[in-house]
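Lecture notes, unit on binding sites. The following record was shown on slide 14. It pairs a sequence with adenosine-5'-triphosphate.
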Amino acid sequence: MSTSTKHVAVSNQKGGVGKTMVAINLAGALNQRGHTVLFVDVDPQGNATEGLGLSEVYEEPEPNLRSVLVSQDTALSEIIETHPEMDLVPSNIDLFKGEAELVTEMQGRKRLQRAVADVGGGYDFVIYDCPPSLLVLTDSALLAAQNVLIPALAESTSTRALDILFDQIDTLEAEYETSITEQAIVANRVEPDGEAEEMMTWFQETFEPGLPIFEIRKRVVLKRAWSNGVSVFEHTEDCDMEGEFDQLAAHLEDAL
Ligand SMILES: Nc1ncnc2c1ncn2[C@@H]1O[C@H](COP(=O)(O)OP(=O)(O)OP(=O)(O)O)[C@@H](O)[C@H]1O
Ligand SMILES: [Mg+2]
């Protein structure tokens, strides 16, 4: 659809904030809007791979994403799987070992970008689901995407997490002479209580208008869609958060 591929990494080193849930539903929203999507599961935990119904490939022997990044004897196109809403580069259990190996490889952090460049042009969007760490795989996804979407819980622990992530982005930009743009924050699992309201105000006062804030509520349908291996857009039950994911997708269409 678009002339050049748009890349976005979904990242926050804090665990369990909704990176994978946001990444899957953003991919679903983009697909719904008529875009082709490549989803890259960069997390050795493989939650997205499992959440998209491909848990069996997570345990398969090589070739897998480790062979692409570390051994470099496999093209990314060889390991792409299909899903009704997107194509998927699955994670694999070997990536735990692969991440440690990448540390000492020449240009280890640039290898994902090179691997995706070979196939990325065939897609409108490439979404990277990052692990909960600031190690080589997260750096790789940030460098490959050059755009970052940040899910964060509406609670006070998020302020330090965001400080640390922004510092890491600054360091990468300086080290690799590149630019990595924060595109939006997704406040996730927002519940109508005092702490969440205070944090939403803090997000808005700290980041808006430069950085849009999207708000996703805690919804059991999001969990059920995940269990069924699809986004809420493909899931049979309706979810009132579809509109917010659609607006997030529309924002990225325009911003990237
Ligand atoms: N808005 C939401 N409503 C209900 N459940 C949610 C919501 N967001 C996330 N969850 C659930 O919370 C858990 C953590 O979410 P998720 O795995 O997406 O976080 P993560 O940041 O990717 O975690 P990790 O850091 O381990 O990669 C999952 O079980 C997910 O289904
Ligand atoms: Mg995750």
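Take-home: Residues 19-20, 43, 47, 129 surround magnesium ion (ligand 2) (CB under 6 Å).
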